[in-house]
Amino acid sequence: TNRSTDVVIIGSGGAGLSAAIEAKDAGKEVIVVEKMPMVGGNTLRATGGLNAAGTSSQAALGIEDSAASHYEDTMKGGYEKNDPALVEVLTEQAADAVEWLIELGADLSDVGRMAGASQDRSHRPTGGAPVGAHVVQVLREAAEEKGIEILTETTALEILVEDEEIKGIIAKDKNNNEFTIEASAVVVATGGFGANTTMVTEYDAALDGFGTTNHSGATGDGITMAVAVGAGLVDMVEIQTHPTVVPSNGYMITEAVRGNGAILINRDGERFVNELETRDVVSEATLEQEEQTAFLFFDEGIRESLSAIEGYIRQGFTTEADSIEELAEALGMNAENLAATVETYNSYVAAGDDKDFGRADMPRALENSKFYAIEVGPAVHHTMGGLRIDTLGQVLDSEGNSISGLYAAGEVTGGVHGGNRLGGNALTDLIVFGRLAGKSAAAGL
Ligand code: ADP
């Protein structure tokens, strides 16, 4: 049966739920449609943190930071391809996003550092519990408490426009019955297109055959629907790969394994890159190796430093051995080469100078039996391009004119991350721009 409301939100990830709460708090009736059986989208998979400068959590830990520094890091990380006006909004409103989540009941008291950041500003729950699932839970509970209706297993098919005015959407329920939801404002928060191989290779043919870390609903529907009503696109070719993903199942191995001291070796038992380089550089270097994968190599000391590794071992991702030679054998690798590589690397650790690749941070020598390896390769991780928006979350056409009544936020949009997204900036993007889009939709901007 057909429905009617003030604001329709397509997608129930971090961006859609934030938009829904703000629109409802502004006094509007809201319906969220979500095509999957559960809410949360890719946001559920976010592990790193939520980047923000000048928060109460940082203050409690004595960390001094500024939005200006967050801005500079984000622009530099994105190779200055980012839209400066959007990055200004992102970084200036990040702290308020953290306080808003804390007020809704979130625990963001642990603050750590991610690659490309010049200060500790990645917020997550105490003990480093997965941040995305926690944030989704807090937002979902807040939405339910406020009486926001979330229709799961309901797919938006089309945005309705009449006489240049947004009229709502056409959706289908799980029995494939189509119906209309009338509304004067639509917020597109459908996430990225990392799981849509056709769309990915259309924009970057070099990614043919890549796996993905994304949930299966990340198919770019919002891009297709919004373009059909005149939306412009930016940066579609900017697709981020994550360098350390288990090839057989798309499971992402956290950056922290390298951060805590692991090295990457190829099938000749040799290092081939500064392991702490940006994601794109490490991914590219891996693709140049035999079989286009590599092995994360670490020892018992690193295992003990990082609880996430226990999970990898439990899930059977690791090959382990009591000596370097045995491990090399198990991997079908030249044992002498691997032993020599590790010996050389350990001498660099002792000297504090990586003469081969200039790796700046080498926190641990690889010398404690047992030894471990995980085969990893790059997979599509985050699509940085998408719908063109302004600083209020309104969708723009390709000439930069706003499309009245149409808003977007989160991974479906482009311009915030430029050529390379920094770890921890995705959650900031979702919450900051989700809230803005919800407020703008309610205000009829
Ligand atoms: P973001 O991080 O930008 O919030 P997410 O991937 O976390 O994005 O969430 C986007 C959500 O939108 C996902 O749960 C996804 O299943 C949902 N979605 C995608 N396309 C549609 C569609 N056509 N109709 C309804 N929901 C959709």
From TrEMBL:
GO MF terms listed in the record are: FMN binding; steroid dehydrogenase activity, acting on the CH-CH group of donors
| Gene3D superfamilies assigned | FAD/NAD(P)-binding domain, Succinate dehydrogenase/fumarate reductase flavoprotein, catalytic domain
> Which EC class is this protein assigned?
oxidoreductase
Q: Which EC number(s) does the record attach to this protein?
A: 1.3.5.4
Keywords assigned by UniProt, alphabetized: FAD, Flavoprotein, Oxidoreductase
Residues annotated as domain FAD-dependent oxidoreductase 2 FAD-binding: 6-427
Domain of life assignment? Bacteria
Entries under InterPro entries matching the protein: FAD-dep_OxRdtase_2_FAD-bd, FAD-oxidoreductase_2, FAD/NAD-bd_sf, Flavocytochrome_c, Succ_DH/fumarate_Rdtase_cat_sf
Pfam families noted in UniProt: FAD_binding_2
According to its UniProt record, which cofactors does this protein need? FAD
Q: Which NCBIfam families match?
A: flavo_cyto_c
Q: What does the sequence similarity comment in the record state about its family?
A: Belongs to the FAD-dependent oxidoreductase 2 family. FRD/SDH subfamily.
Identify this protein by name.
Answer: Flavocytochrome c
Source organism of the structure: Clostridium formicaceticum
Taxonomic lineage is: Bacteria, Bacillati, Bacillota, Clostridia, Eubacteriales
